[in-house]
Specification:
Largest sheet of chain A: 7 strands, mixed
CATH architecture of the largest domain in chain A: 2-Layer Sandwich
Largest interface: A-B, 90 and 101 residues
CATH class of the largest domain in chain A: Alpha Beta
Low-confidence stretches of chain A: none
Radius of gyration of chain B: 43 Å
Number of helices of chain A: 12
Strand content of chain B: 25-35%
Order of helices and strands of chain A: HHHHHEEHEHEEHEEEHEHHH
Radius of gyration of chain A: 40 Å
Oligomer: heterodimer
Number of strands of chain A: 9
Number of domains of chain A: 2
Mean pLDDT of chain B: 92
Distance between the termini of chain A: 78 Å
Strand order of the largest sheet of chain B: 28-31-32-36-35-34-33
Largest sheet of chain B: 7 strands, mixed
CATH topology of the largest domain in chain A: BirA Bifunctional Protein, domain 2
Helix content of chain B: 25-40%
Helix content of chain A: 25-40%
Shape of chain B: elongated
Number of strands of chain B: 40
Strand order of the largest sheet of chain A: 1-4-5-9-8-7-6
Mean pLDDT of chain A: 92
Strand content of chain A: 15-25%
């Protein structure tokens, strides 16, 4: 009996590792341990064995059974591994480039705009938006721009014919002429007219000037303006905001300074210079970056805020100019040509 | 404008270094665009010498050895020189050992080719006077030997080129800038002293043969007109000091009378004009509007056509000056002029500005009138000019002078408190400093008294030249300017929380850009203004007309863009033409769509997928097709809260210019608030704009106000955990029938037949086939239907029973058949 068991085990040891597929395996498994299997046959013989020999024989059969099961498990594991291996092709060359195009890139103006908006959001500014086609009221009148101011001249501002109608751009006065906004300050006016203070907004967007295009000018460019209206807003608060914004953008060694200036919609008004290390291609120590000031009481009156109660500041800058400074770009026209060799540099 | 430091010194004795003065001007609020130094720099050990002898250098062909007398203190030196003009007898500048020349070039005693040299004789560029290097600077005026260089040469000057902000016309003059600097440096301001003081009459003067009358017909355009008559003058060159100053600030000296006019304008800011009295027809001055069609030849020699909106100074018969802008050729001062009429006037800013713009003619005079000339200090300028005319051209004034207007006295006071200024600034400036700032700027404090809760109140008298100061807030700026904007104390940014979110359009742009960039698109920025022809081919002639600007600046940027696709095509073309492989580009931004005669400004997102011309890859990828762009447009619509349901989607028709019929679709109309176009761009159009290969594109546009309405939160719908039953339906329809229509029929039939017993979870097309095995002109559409109950496992029998009914319903009208 023992010899017979050993023979069966030896046969299994020889056969099982050669099996390649699950059906083969199942067939082999049935031949050994199935209802009509060879090992099963031994167990069936147990009844015929004298009682005193049974424990020893039972032990022998059990040992054989355990050994056989281990071999079956090993064979099955080998087949499963073989199945997985069959799903693979030959090894890949990991150094080959992906044939898929990409990745996509954001435009540098978007990158700079979003970074500024993120910085400003942290101190409570939300991003406002408004129409690019505007009317004289929102672009000029409400911003304390006299009716004969040169900025309103057809020489400097794009107008639409009197008959032009823009269905979803509201006019303050009937018959007002439509124009392309020359600054995003019109968004400030529309925002203030929508509701009472306090207000803290940043309005980035396209603006238009009748200007000759060259390396530093474009008839179509982008601005970013901030407006904060509340009680007791001061010049010092304005300076604190700009110190914060540019330090967040350019690093803590960045400094800003104010120079007195003149804008119709702020009083006092300032031009803002900054100095920062690591700015590419900057030769001067101080670089002019934008304009700002305390909202002129006339502007508050135009939108129905009481200037005795409310005060505020506004700040504006050109996004292209900022992007040019940050990245060291020296021709504004590159922003609108969309050469992929340009676009792929910034993402 | 240009300001000469030498000239400024007449009114304020500045002893600060030039850098300090530049900084002062900057922080007073005037941008210094340039600082120009004229004349020689201060150099020591450079003196006047005379060449006594010149001999050829024994060891060098091009060098000479000279002996040079540098006066009793220095004696005679031997100097090697390479210049051609080191001839004996010439007086030159000699840099002696120890001198440090510009460029940090130190002069030492040295041996040149074996010959000892005690210094260097200098060319102009070597002493920092221009670029002349071809020869020595010869001092033809023979200054004394040994005289230090800076005493021998005319003194230099520093000229500041300053940008004056439009609110400060008073600073368009040396006196104005001097006033600001005197306040900054706390130095007294020295006014020029006038000897002449006029008397005025409104009737005839003493010499009606020279000037018989002055009349102002248009007083609203000319609040003040004065005319002095000066006889017996002699035209000649103005004195050297005056010419020097005029040249320093960029003016060309003409003659004594014209130069005085310019000089006084640059000193005081008041433009002046001198007539030759003989040339005034009828001895009359009439300030009036021009007649339509009237002509004048201005001093620059150009004939100019005038109209009735323009103000002129006329004599009895014709215009002689375009008021405030430029004189005529016919009335000016000439070499033989002996009798003058000196005009000193104020013209309305708007009048001068509109005339100047209309004529395209600007002058130093019009520049000042446009920004505002103070009528209350005008006559001072006239007196000053008369002093200088008499000093430089002789003559005498015939009095009294004519004056029309100018009667309204000036008086303005502003009351401001210490507390108010502090509240606006957000930091403390001592009371004494504020008061000192006012007074330094000649803003006299006429009263000082305590106020309620806001500290000292000052009544500040505003001088007539500071018309820009009108409210207490204006004085805050004055105090801050003199305090110094550089000294605003730092602070932590305070941000008391405000509820609010970014504008829906901003959020939309962000979402769609994230999506497209995440799908390998490169974001572009194109100009909003497009050429007329392109807009017309993309929309229609009538729509294009509505989108036109009234005053385009350049021809190819005349219309608002009605789509983002044309800009992206241009970007494709640019990259292709530069040999850069390009395929996926996208853009967000405003577009303008004409509907029923009015334009609608829309938020839009667009993208293109072009054949990647020139791309070679070791492994090919499936190219994009209509369904790729449809997929992207659906995703973009979702970002706007719009489900691009199949029922909205229609094939494009011929009228959708720009798109390829049969290969592109449209969805939505702006009347519903949004619109989309996607598919293949018209092959001929793409070719005609110069883009190679096929271009698939997509555009989604929505009215901003509709984006704002997207805020609804979805409700959760419960779903079943029981197994689904799947059944496939193969249907045969005409080739041209759109799948969505058939799907609708299947869905409706399924829902009706299932009723309430269980649910039709989904109906999807999974196969489209036409060709062999099907009749001509037919196609097969295979749908997969998923049924499920929320309460139990469905049995085959009940599902089969329903499907039989569904098949009957679908095929009932005969247009849809079951595939055999």
């Amino acid at each position: 009996m023992q010899d017979q068991l050993s023979a069966v085990l030896a046969k299994a040891t020889a056969e099982l590792p050669t099996l390649k597929t699950r059906p083969e395996f199942e067939a082999a498994k049935a031949r050994y341990v199935g209802p009509h299997g060879e090992l099963t046959a031994f167990m069936k013989q147990m009844g015929a064995v004298p009682k005193e020999q049974r424990p020893a024989l039972g032990k022998l059969i059990n040992e054989a059974k355990v050994k056989l099961q281990a071999q079956l498990d090993a064979a099955l594991a080998q087949i499963a591994a073989g199945e997985l291996a069959a799903q693979l092709g030959p090894a890949v060359d990991v150094t080959l480039p992906s044939p898929d195009i990409g990745p996509g890139t954001r435009h540098p103006l978007t990158l700079v705009r979003e970074e500024m908006c993120r910085i400003l959001r942290k101190v409570g500014f939300t991003v406002a938006d408004g129409p690019e086609v505007e009317t004289e009221y929102y672009c000029f009148d409400a911003l304390n721009t006299p009716s004969d101011h040169p900025a309103r001249d057809a020489q400097d501002t794009f107008y639409f014919p009197t008959a032009a109608r823009f269905g979803n751009v509201s006019r303050m006065n009937p018959g007002e002429k439509y124009l392309l906004r020359t600054h995003t300050s019109s968004v400030q006016i529309r925002t203030m007219l929508k509701g009472p203070p306090p207000i803290r907004i940043v309005s980035p967007g396209r603006v238009y000037r009748r200007d000759t295009t060259d390396a530093t000018h474009s008839a179509n460019f982008h601005q970013l303006e901030c407006l904060y209206v509340d009680r007791n807003v001061t010049v010092r608060d304005l300076k604190a905001l700009l110190d914060y914004v540019f330090a967040a953008l350019l690093g803590s060694d960045t400094k800003t300074r104010f120079r007195p200036h003149y804008f119709g919609y702020t009083e006092p008004s300032f031009e803002v210079d900054l100095t920062a290390k690591h700015l590419p291609k900057v030769k001067k120590e101080w670089i002019e970056i934008g304009g700002c000031g305390m909202v002129d009481p006339t502007v508050f009156e135009a939108v129905g805020y009481d200037p005795e109660v409310w005060s505020g500041y506004a700040f504006g800058m050109g996004l292209e100019r900022l992007a040019m400074l940050l990245y060291g770009i020296d021709d504004i026209r590159y922003f609108y040509q969309n050469d992929l060799r340009f676009l792929k540099q910034f993402a | 404008m240009k300001i000469s430091l030498n000239w400024l010194q007449d009114y304020v004795k500045l002893d600060a270094p030039v850098d300090e003065i530049t900084r002062a001007i900057t922080f007073l609020g005037f941008e210094v665009e340039q600082v120009i130094r004229t004349g020689a720099p201060q150099l020591t050990n450079v003196v006047v010498g005379e060449i006594l002898t010149r001999a050829k250098h024994p060891n060098a062909d091009k060098l000479s050895v000279c002996t040079v007398d540098i006066g009793p203190a220095g004696g005679v030196k031997t100097i090697v020189c390479g210049a051609n003009n080191c001839d004996a007898g010439n007086r030159v500048l000699v840099a002696l050992p120890g001198a440090i020349l510009p460029g940090n070039f130190e002069i030492k005693q040295s041996k040149i080719r074996g010959q000892l040299s005690d210094g260097m004789m200098c060319s102009p560029d070597e002493i920092g006077m221009g670029r002349e290097h071809s020869g020595l600077l010869i001092l033809t005026h023979k200054p004394a030997l040994g005289l230090p260089m800076n005493e021998a040469l005319p003194p230099g000057d520093v000229v500041f080129d300053i940008e004056i902000t439009p609110n400060r016309p008073d600073c368009l003059s040396h006196l104005g800038i001097a006033r600001e600097l005197s306040a900054w440096f706390k130095l007294p301001l020295i006014y020029p002293q006038e000897n002449f003081h006029g008397t005025f009459a409104s009737g005839a003067g003493e010499r009606p043969d020279l000037l018989a009358g002055v009349r102002v017909d248009s007083p609203e355009d000319c609040p003040l007109y004065s005319a002095h008559v000066i006889t017996g003058i002699k035209i000649g060159p103005s004195p050297a000091w005056m010419q020097e100053r005029l040249k320093a600030v960029g003016l060309r000296p003409i003659n004594n009378v014209v130069d005085v006019g310019n000089y006084v304008m640059l000193e005081t800011g008041q433009p002046l004009h001198a007539f030759d009295a003989r040339k005034l027809g009828g001895h009359q001055i009439i300030v009036r509007r021009a007649l339509d069609g009237e002509k004048i030849t201005s001093l620059d020699g150009k004939e100019r056509a005038l109209h009735s909106g323009m103000l002129v100074i006329a004599d009895a018969s014709r215009p002689v000056v375009i008021a405030g802008i430029m004189g005529g050729e016919n009335s000016g001062v000439s070499d033989d002029t002996t009798d003058l009429v000196l005009e000193c006037a104020c013209f309305k800013r708007q009048s001068v500005r509109s005339t100047s713009r209309a004529l395209g003619l600007q002058s130093d005079s019009s520049y000042r009138y446009e920004r505002g000339v103070d009528p209350h200090s005008s006559l001072e300028a006239a007196y000053r000019a008369i002093d200088l005319i008499i000093e430089t051209a002789g003559g005498s004034v015939v009095g009294p002078a004519y004056q029309v207007g100018g009667e309204v006295p000036w008086k303005r006071e502003i009351v401001v408190t210490h507390g108010f200024i502090g509240e606006k600034l957000g930091f403390e400036i001592p009371e004494a400093d504020m008061r000192a700032a006012f007074e330094a700027l000649e803003l006299a404090v006429t009263r000082e008294e305590p106020s309620d809760h806001r500290g000292t109140a000052w009544t500040v008298e505003i001088p007539s030249w500071r018309d820009d100061l009108d409210r207490p807030i204006d004085l805050v700026e004055e105090v801050l300017r003199l305090f110094g904007t550089e000294k605003i104390p730092a602070a932590v940014v305070s941000s008391p929380g405000l509820p609010g979110d970014d504008d829906p359009v901003v959020q939309f742009n962000r979402r769609v850009t994230d999506y497209l960039v995440g799908h390998d698109f490169h974001e572009c920025v194109n100009l909003t203004l497009r050429p007329a022809a392109e807009v017309a081919t993309w929309t229609s002639q009538t729509a294009a007309a509505e989108l036109a600007l009234q005053n385009p600046f350049v021809e190819d940027q005349s219309h608002l863009r009605p789509t983002l696709i044309t800009g992206l095509l241009e970007s494709l073309k640019l990259n292709q033409s530069r040999g850069v492989t390009v395929s996926r580009l996208c853009e967000t931004g405003r577009i303008f769509i004409e509907r029923n005669g009015q334009n609608l400004e829309c938020a839009a997102v667009g993208f293109v997928i072009a054949d990647p011309i020139g791309e070679r890859s070791w492994r090919g990828r499936e190219p994009a097709d209509f369904y790729s762009v449809k997929h992207h447009v659906e995703a973009l619509a979702v970002a706007a809260g719009v489900q691009l349901a199949a029922r909205f989607v229609k094939p494009v028709e011929e009228s959708y210019l720009g798109w390829q019929v049969g290969h592109a679709a449209s969805a939505g109309e702006l009347e519903q608030g949004w619109t989309a176009r996607f598919g293949l761009l018209n092959l001929a159009m793409v070719k005609s704009v110069g883009v190679e290969g096929k271009v698939y594109a997509g555009l989604f546009a929505i009215l901003p106000e509709n984006l704002a309405a997207v805020s609804g939160r979805r409700r959760y719908a419960d779903f079943s955990l029981f197994p689904a039953a799947l059944r496939d339906f193969a249907l045969v329809v005409d080739l041209a029938v759109p799948a969505a229509g058939v799907q609708k029929v299947v869905e409706n039939a399924a829902r009706t037949e299932v009723g309430k017993s269980f649910a039709v979870e989904s109906v999807n097309v999974f196969d489209v086939y036409h060709g062999k095995g099907l009749p001509e002109g037919k196609k097969s559409l295979a749908f997969s239907l998923v049924f499920r109950s929320s309460e139990r496992t469905l049995t085959d029998d009940e599902v089969n029973a329903v499907c039989t009914k569904i098949r009957q319903a679908i095929t009932a009208d005969g247009s849809i058949a079951l595939r055999a």
